[in-house]
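Troubleshooting entry. The earlier prediction with MTE gave an output that would not parse, so I re-checked the input for stray whitespace and re-submitted. Clean input:
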Amino acid sequence: MARSRRKFIALSTGVTAVALSSCNKGGDEPSTSGANMRPYGDRAPQEKIQRTIRELTASPGTGSSRTPLQDIYGIITPSSLHYERHHSGVPAIDPATHSLLIHGLVDKPLAFTMDDIRRFPAVSRIIFLECGGNSVGEQSGKFPETVQGSHGLLSGTQWTGVPVSVVLREAGLKPEAKWMLAEGADACRMARSIPLDKALDPEVLLAYGQNGEALRPENGYPLRLIIPGWEGNTNVKWLRRLHLTAEPAMSSKETGYYTELRPDGKAEMFTFVMEARSVITRPSGGQKLTSHGFHEITGLAWTGRGKIRQVEVSVDNGKTWADAELQEPILPKALTAFRFPWRWDGEEAVIQCRCTDETGYLQPTREELIAVRGLNSGYHYNGLRPWRVKATGEVESA
Ligand SMILES: Nc1nc2c(c(=O)[nH]1)N[C@H]1C(S)=C(S)[C@@H](COP(=O)(O)O)O[C@H]1N2
Ligand SMILES: [Mo]
């Protein structure tokens, strides 16, 4: 392992040396000047990676698009490639007239304009967001061929906004208030009940910033709820109302959807936290290794319970495991990147990873998950995801 690493560094140094010497020849300054500045940037025309879109038929605008995890660098997803999940399309909201109403069991109901909200001291947090339905089919044995298809309802972002607790305090909470219904301004008025003790956690944000600029329309412009580590659905977009109540509202998204039917026939509700999970993104399904020898296996790990403590990789179909290197920064409830140097000898190999979070929870195998949860519900699926590297170098789902 150490030796292949050294060789890799030697190789990359060699590449740098070639580039430098050709540059040092001098005299080959470009003869025409380059393109002009532009007020808003776009990527190089050669760069083509995209979200993959899946429309659902439940109602117009319903569907999802997936982040190309196999092609992303680091732990921040560009806003233009953040996954999307809409239950009735993307509403067009004018921030100049949008307001957030806070009412119900409060001392004084208040409506905040966007300007009002931006006057509170802002905080920024890097976190992952994952749909509770990411990989929903894997529990019952449907394995998409690429990591974008299997894990792409996952992204990492720096969100900026105001702690919900700060704004709730302005309205004053009545002692009977125990839940907070957060409602969106989209056509379906998507709404989720959040336990008040969670809503008062300072990490829960009314976010208006995404990676340094305003939220993208598809990610909730101009205002959304961000609950680090909780299932994507509770992160209500296009937020227009917070209703303080004594009981949960039993909205359709917490009764008809996002509940888990257990083997005994009972449905579990309010399963909020996303448990620890990891996946190899390179090499992954649909990619191809074109040479034997050194390859760096890289991937992502994340947990709704805090920090990732350890990622292990197996390159022999789960027989043996070795520690991967976690890359800094290792932030709570954020994507954590890992790497593992591997010498591929050209034989067929099954590669996979598993993670442990700071609570000591170890990511389960699919079999272990099914033994506990049965096959009725595939939400919150976090089983291991092996990839097969064939002797041809082609990588497929294993
Ligand atoms: N108002 C509203 N909020 C919403 C949704 C929606 O359809 N409407 N989708 C939810 C779901 S299921 C998820 S996974 C996340 C997706 O956020 P994103 O589209 O920014 O990735 O938003 C949640 N918030
Ligand atoms: Mo979701």
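This one parsed fine. The domain at 52-268 is CATH 3.90.420.10 (Sulfite Oxidase; Chain A, domain 2).
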